[in-house]
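Schema walk-through. Below, the input block comes first and the output block second. Nothing else is stored per chain. Lengths vary across the set, and this one has 186 residues.
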Amino acid sequence: MSRLLLFNKPFGVLSQFTDRGTADSPRATLSDHINVPGVYPAGRLDRDSEGLLLLTDDGKLQARISHPKFKAPKTYLVQVEGEPDDAALAALRRGVTLKDGPTRPAQAERIAPPDLWPRDPPVRYRKSVPDSWLRLTITEGRNRQVRRMTAHVGYPTLRLVRWSVGDWTLDGIAPGTWQEAKSTQS
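--- output ---
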């Protein structure tokens, strides 16, 4: 039977088990939080992103979760600089053209600030520049795609939390912890 772990990756943790960085400045990795042999990430989250990272020991399930051809929806809670207008949201919903080509249309909506854990270090606060939150769902996963999309429409990302992948969510999982899930989507 396949194993599937739902991990709430904290800010600053690499989405890998080892770090090939310099020995004098070791960075946090998955091995600091997960001691389960034989599981590997299905997809990635940047070091400066937080939230749901799925790990499995099943190569077919790993491909099904992470390969763009399966179009698994990934939902992010995104704190942005400024207050996106309707035109910016409409552009995200149509898809925007980035340097590596057009994105698929996204689901995009303004939301109230979510009840999340504090980030360490905290997001910078600027008294003269408001910030706001979006819920953004995409079906692809290019390098830093959500950050590049929000910047493209004029609202840089300040904090990025992946809340769900397919039917799996972060609900009830504290930062730096994981729980086992049924791999029903294999």
